[in-house]
Amino acid sequence: MGERAAIALTAVPARFARMKAVPEIVAVPAESRYVLTIEGERVGFMDYRVREEAFIAVHTEVDPAYSGQGLGELLVRHVLDQVRDTGMSLRPLCPFVQRFLQKHHEYDDLVVPTEGN
Questions:
Q1: Is the pTM of this model over 0.70?
Q2: Percentages helix, strand, coil for the chain, rounded to the nearest 5?
Q3: Tens of pLDDT along 86-115?
Q4: Which long-range contacts (CB under 8 A, 24 or more apart) does 63-69 make?
């Protein structure tokens, strides 16, 4: 419990490849969180829950000092790719993830309607 599992980014956008430090995303299942770090410093995270076969994206946050660099999008894209790989469905409660999905219809197949909709 509390074990961290580093997850290699499958595709790092060109703007990050030019950086000295490449962002790393680490899954922390015991905390129901994905953590985004740069040179070991936590710069963002996504909190989630898993219910039955659904991944519920609860909250995503990026440190304001790193805003506007596409790190939130990088984090969300990576997590959604992981969700797809596991075969789970997605319930996007997080407003940031909801806005991401409005622009990225390649993830539409993951989304299940929320209760009451």
A1: yes
A2: 35, 35, 30
A3: 999 999 999 999 999 999 999 999 998 756
A4: 66/38, 69/15
The β-bridge relationship of strands 89-92 and 54-62 is: parallel
The conformation of residue 26, written as its DSSP 8-state character, comes to E
Residues 6+ apart with CB under 8 A from 14: none
Q: Averaged over 14-24, what is the pLDDT? A: 66
Position 14 confidence tier, pLDDT thresholds 50, 70, 90: low
What amino acid occupies position 116? G
Cα–Cα dist 92/60, whole Å: 11
Amino acid present at 81: D
